[in-house]
Write a structure and sequence with these properties.
The protein is α+β, with helices and mostly antiparallel strands. The chain has 2 domains: about 1-30; about 30-150, Beta Barrel (Lipocalin). About 20% of the residues lie in helices and about 45% in strands. It has an 8-stranded antiparallel beta barrel. β5 and β6 (about 115-125) form a beta hairpin. The longest helix has 27 residues, at about 1-30. The radius of gyration is 19 Å and the shape is globular. The N and C termini lie far apart (about 40 Å). Keywords: Lipoprotein, Signal. This is Putative lipoprotein. InterPro entries: DUF2147. It comes from Burkholderia lata (strain ATCC 17760 / DSM 23089 / LMG 22485 / NCIMB 9086 / R18194 / 383).
């Protein structure tokens, strides 16, 4: 009887290890998760953005928390010109309608709460899914800027 439990125990341990590793593999090919944004000027962490899938299979991104000087709960998007005008930045959806196209996500838009402008957006994963290149642009992708966001565990 002891002979049977040893192989079973090895299979059970292998199954647990595989189950624990599965979320890591899933993260490598999807931007779904928590991301730390980096300020373009100071190169310091700026905010945490949660990227999730909406009911239509598109990705959206919501500001979960400001970091450093941006960690003020009453911070509002005073420069916004759409329905987000004067709304709290914490909890605000800043990425909308991103769809997977090959090895990147495209077709949606991103809001810069600092200036209130909405840009077309393209997102690409790098470094085994640990970095997200987020490009905001007007018209064609050449006319824009990119930020590198870092995945948070």
């Amino acid at each position: 009887m002891i002979q049977l439990t040893r192989p079973f125990r090895a299979i059970a341990v292998a199954g647990v290890l595989l189950a624990c590793a599965a979320p890591t593999f899933a993260q490598a090919d999807s931007p779904i998760g928590m991301w730390q944004t980096i300020d373009d000027n100071t190169h310091q962490p700026k905010a945490l953005v949660q990227i999730a899938e909406d009911g239509d299979g598109a990705l959206t991104g919501k500001v979960v928390k400001g970091l450093g000087a941006n960690d003020t709960p009453d911070r509002r998007c005073t420069a916004c010109t759409d329905e987000r005008k004067d709304q709290l930045i914490k909890g605000m959806t800043i990425i909308k309608a991103m769809k997977k196209e090959g090895d990147h996500w495209d077709g949606g838009n991103i809001l810069d709460p600092e200036n209130g402008k909405v840009y077309k957006c393209k997102m690409t994963l790098e470094d085994g899914g640990q970095k997200l290149i987020v490009r905001g642009y007007i018209g064609v992708s050449l006319l824009g800027r990119s930020q590198t966001w870092v995945r948070q565990q």
